[in-house]
UniProtKB/TrEMBL annotation:
Catalytic activity, reaction form: L-alanine + NAD(+) + H2O = pyruvate + NH4(+) + NADH + H(+)
NCBIfam families linked to this entry: alaDH (TIGR00518)
Enzyme Commission number(s) of this protein: 1.4.1.1
UniProt signal peptide: none
Classification via Pfam families: AlaDh_PNT_C (PF01262), AlaDh_PNT_N (PF05222)
Protein name: Alanine dehydrogenase
Domain spans labelled Alanine dehydrogenase/pyridine nucleotide transhydrogenase N-terminal: 4-137
Organism: Maribacter vaceletii
EC supergroup of this enzyme: oxidoreductase
Molecular-function annotations in GO: alanine dehydrogenase activity; nucleotide binding
Ligand binding (NAD(+)): 134, 198, 203, 220, 239-240, 267-270, 279, 298-301
Length: 366
């Protein structure tokens, strides 16, 4: 199969869809790999790195799309790429369709085979291709949140870990999934007091077992959320509904109950956000303030640490890329139930029901 790796063109996105090591495995299996010139530079990989393992370097993104049977990338195609996607072409990437009706309609129109990293699902319900980026984003959420709690950037002026004689900051984590647990781990490591909420008692029991005593668990409901937002300094939104839009657990009116300078980091922004006032931002302009509450809602947080993120992503995507390249999407997905769940749009029709439900459509064809 001919596999294409284009350069990401989303604002401040420096990750790349495949490392040279991944390209090496494809070439060794007799596949052809086209990599756009300088696609890997942001992640620390040069054109020569790719050429040495057998990739062919192409000058433009248009050439990569035009000459490839499968596109492997990181972020969803943006508007400038919509017309480059071809009928019958496999596009394997993070799509997060439920948060963008325009993207969904564009991919339906393209009649491509859209396989979303974020909905590939193992038998135990875990999301193997989302997990590493959730781990990065969860850890980064505390790193960024701690920074934006500083007064010069309109935060409360709180040091999360505190100092002798001064109580540490308080972190509220919504969701005890991968993002939530990684965020709690980092916050606890800094010495902050952490409260983590979830509706899954199994997850809360797990957190209670593995975290230190200054990480406490509570059942998630509106009463408890309203109670804690009044006293916590940093709020992490880590809620995920597989392939669907995230629920608004914090509404606009709740912001008035927060102390001025409170920071919200909504990691669920890719799925619409779990805070009503969330809107996607970029690394170039990452925050905005509503009701004196600082919102950090960058839609591609792991893009700020592209070397780590690209390495972690290729580690998990490569086996699926190899299977798709070897057998094609129909045979590969029939052999692998996890991959089959990654199918979102096929030949102009939506095959993932949560997307249809997200937009209130009556049909899979628009």
């Amino acid at each position: 199969m001919i596999v294409g790796v284009p350069k990401e063109i989303k604002n401040n996105e420096s990750r790349v869809g495949m490392t040279p090591a991944g390209v090496f495995e494809l070439v060794r299996s007799n596949h052809t790999v086209y990599v756009q010139s300088n696609a890997g530079v942001g992640s620390g990989f040069t054109n020569e790195d790719y050429q040495q393992v057998g990739a062919v370097i192409l000058d433009t993104i248009g050439q990569v799309y035009a000459m490839s049977e499968m596109i492997v990338k990181v972020k969803e195609p943006i508007k400038e790429e919509y017309t480059l996607v071809q009928e019958g072409q496999i596009v394997f990437t993070y799509f997060h369709f439920a948060s963008s009706e325009a993207l969904t309609k564009a991919m339906i129109k393209s009649k491509a085979i859209c396989i979303a990293y974020e909905t590939v699902e193992d038998e135990d319900g875990t999301l193997p291709l989302l997990t590493p980026m959730s781990e990065v984003a969860g850890r980064m959420a505390i790193q960024q949140g701690a920074k934006y709690l500083e007064k010069p950037v309109k935060g409360k002026g709180v040091l999360l870990g505190g100092v002798p004689g001064v109580a540490p900051g308080k972190v509220l984590v919504l969701g005890a999934g991968v993002v939530g647990i990684q965020a709690a781990k980092m916050a606890a490591g800094l010495g902050a007091h952490v409260t983590i909420l979830d509706i899954d008692m199994k997850r809360l029991r797990y957190v209670n077992d593995v975290m230190p005593p200054h990480v406490v668990t509570e059942f998630s409901n509106e009463f408890n959320i309203r109670k804690h937002i009044k006293t916590h300094d940093l709020i992490i939104g880590g809620v995920l509904l597989k392939g669907a839009k995230a629920p608004n657990l914090i509404t606009r009116d709740m912001l008035k109950e927060m102390h001025p300078g409170t920071v919200i980091v909504d990691v669920a922004v890719d799925q619409g956000g779990c805070v009503e006032t969330t809107r996607p931002t970029t690394h170039e302009d990452p925050t905005y303030i509503i009701e004196d509450v600082v919102h950090y809602t960058v839609a591609n947080m792991p893009g700020a640490v592209p070397y780590t993120s690209t390495m972690a992503l290729t580690n998990v995507t490569l086996p699926y890329v190899l299977a798709l390249a070897k057998d094609g999407w129909e045979v590969a997905s029939s052999k692998n139930e996890a991959l089959q769940k990654g199918l979102n749009i096929v030949n102009g029709g939506v095959v993932y029901k949560e997307i249809i439900e997200a937009f209130g459509w009556q049909s899979s064809m628009v």
